[in-house]
Write a structure and sequence with these properties.
Layout (H helix, E strand, L loop, with lengths): L10 H9 L8 H14 L4 H6 L1 H7 L5 H5 L3 H10 L6 H21 L2 H6 L7 E2 L13 H12 L7 H10 L3 E2 L13
Parallel strand pairs: 1-2
Length: about 190
């Protein structure tokens, strides 16, 4: 069996591919982490963001949603200066605004997870691709979720980011068919 090629020889990317990517998660904190990291990745490579993941975990207290929702502009500026995170002020402010939006979703739907997973009837979509070139960058579903998240004041949630996010939390399994980490091969 041949695994997906995108992690290459990068050990951090390989660990993420082998142990997290396309594995279903229903944990709000992890889901918020992936939303934050996917938003931070906008315009950059995933390997850059993963290399800074530990700093994000420290800066945002393990992606504590309530904590992130209360961050002041000054605290966000301190995070920018004191931690090895992506320095974009817009991306850093989106952590706070997205945390506030998640809290509203939790009130409305019971959890961020329930809000998202209802789109797929609480089951991952298992795709069967023969090559990575077949994997889309967005889908009608990622466009639908993106549109709704934007209405709910989420930031950095375009349809391409949301499709990557869906892969990150396992709403879709986009491992190629020959990959030992594809659902059908585990």
């Amino acid at each position: 069996m041949s695994a997906c090629l995108w992690p290459g020889d990068n050990p951090v990317m390989k660990q993420y591919h082998d142990n997290e990517w396309c594995r279903p998660s229903y944990d709000d904190s992890y889901i918020f982490e992936m939303l934050t990291l996917e938003g931070a990745q906008s315009g950059l490579s995933w390997s850059i963001v993963l290399s800074k993941r530990e700093e994000y975990i420290k800066a945002f207290r393990n992606f504590d949603i309530r904590y992130c929702s209360t961050l002041s502009d000054e605290e966000l500026e301190n995070i920018k200066n004191e931690y090895n995170v992506i320095k974009s002020p817009l991306k850093l402010r989106s952590v706070r605004s997205n945390a506030l939006a998640v809290l509203k979703l939790q009130t409305e739907f019971g959890s961020f997870s329930d809000y998202l997973w209802r789109y797929t009837d609480y089951r991952p979509q298992i795709n069967i691709w023969d090559s990575e070139e077949q994997i889309p960058v967005k889908t009608p579903l990622s466009e639908e979720i993106s549109k709704d998240l934007k209405k709910r004041n989420f930031k950095f949630v375009g349809p391409v980011i949301i499709y990557s996010f869906m892969q990150a939390i396992g709403m879709v399994d986009d491992h190629i068919r020959s990959c030992p980490y594809h659902t059908v091969n585990r």
